[in-house]
Amino acid sequence: MRDELEPRRCTRREWLRDCGIGLGSIALASLDAKDALAAGAGSARPPHFRARAKSVIHLFMNGGPSQIDLFDPKPMLVERNRQPIPESFTNGERFAFIKGTPKLLGSPFAFARHGRSGAEISELLPHTASIADELAIVRSVKTDQFNHAPAELFMNTGFARIGRPSLGSWLSYGIGSANADLPAFVVLLSGGGQPSGGYSCWGSGFLPTEHQGVVFRSGRDPVLFVNDPPDVARDSRRRGLDALRALNRRRLDTVRDPEIATRIAAYEMAFRMQTSAPELADLSTEPAAVLEEYGATPGEASFANNCVLARRMIERGVRFVQLYHRGWDSHGTGTHDDLLTSLRERCAQTDRACAALVRDLKRRGLLDETLVVWGGEFGRTPMNEERDGSQFLGRDHHPHAFTMWFAGGGVKRGITIGETDELGYFVVRDPVHVHDLHATLLHLLGLEHTRLTYRSQGRDFRLTDVHGEVFAPLLA
């Protein structure tokens, strides 16, 4: 069998299979099969230009945290609390659940200025307030979507429907991993299940499937289906994989299907992870003081544990770690999502660990090369939802203005950027669209978003579609 896969003539049947839209796979049109084997997700590749960050930790607050109650105080809302919102704001607007003319809702939580930067942060986030001078708080993010699943997909893939590669997959495809024994892109879940957008939020879309996110779990088996069955020796599994690899290589040489190369890479990665993943997930090796700082307990499934895991992954060369924590959907339809209780609970579950992660990365010399991103898929309305006459406080989904914060790799420290109007409804200064956000994140990792493309179904695709500009005010 040849070691090198030189081009060869193809049959009419093969040409129709590979070129006909809907008739077959065009999975790797920009790389041939030889390149697919050489450029697997486990191989580091050079960026387009000098990167400011080597990796990303994305703290995804799934459900849409309320910017008005956490980072964007509005005295006018408090002054006009329970008054009808002027119709000039809501004319032609669509809401997920609000009906009629809603009433304004001032934040029931106190704000204070923190650090030398004087960042205004809610009483609900005392630990985040302690790292205010490390943060770039952006109050002017906006999206195109106002329901969870499409907004989650849009924030993760730049498109509101399933089928496009996620940000982590684009990074895996663009620059790979710095550790051949671990995936380039890892996903950690807490807060009760996966997002509404499902696995597509970390899917690879039309990119080779080796670039999709790998979900890690707490406990002895962090990755499903990786461990050998009982009574199967490791050397026996190695021989079996070698035989399977030989068969797959022969098939690849014959049919030239790049997904076979992806399958070979997946089997090899799984074999290596049998050793690397359990060691990585064993938090019992962490000093007690570090676990205390995060509020983490080995063996538990918690956001705090996931933050420790994220730091350990970054240390080992994982390129993109995404932490989803559900439960930020404070509609006020009952006690389970009352703004006064549910928002306080979500902050208590995440605030301490977020701040500990930033401090820990800085202490270890990793913060300058690690970009930490905090935020959800959209924000919350300045109005009380009052669905079906509910007496609980709650806010509906709001795509026009919300807040995210950033720390580390290449972003400014101790700064608040962007501004919303006096009611917090629309952005009035320094708008940041999701496509701009993606362009900026890629830029910090040394990738020009208009050059990071992949040809599928006859056209070149990119994460930022046909939009997006690097948001210069965020860059250090």
Describe this structure as you would to a colleague.
The protein is of the alpha/beta class and 476 residues long. The chain has a single domain (31-474), classed as 3-Layer(aba) Sandwich (Alkaline Phosphatase, subunit A), CATH 3.40.720. It has 14 helices and 19 strands. It has helices spanning 12-19, 33-38, 67-70, 75-79, 87-90, 126-129, 148-157, 167-175, 234-255, 258-281, 288-294, 303-315, 339-363, 434-444; strands at residues 55-62, 103-104, 111-114, 119-122, 135-142, 185-190, 214-216, 320-326, 370-375, 379-380, 383-384, 397-398, 402-408, 415-417, 419-420, 427-429, 432-433, 453-456, 459-462. The strands form 6 sheets. Strands 1, 5, 6, 7, 8, 9, 13, 14 and 17 form a 9-stranded mixed beta sheet that branches. Strands 2-11 form a two-stranded antiparallel sheet. A hairpin with a 4-residue loop joins strand 3 (111-114) and strand 4. The termini are far apart. Mean pLDDT is 87; it is low at 1-8, 13-18 and 20-41.
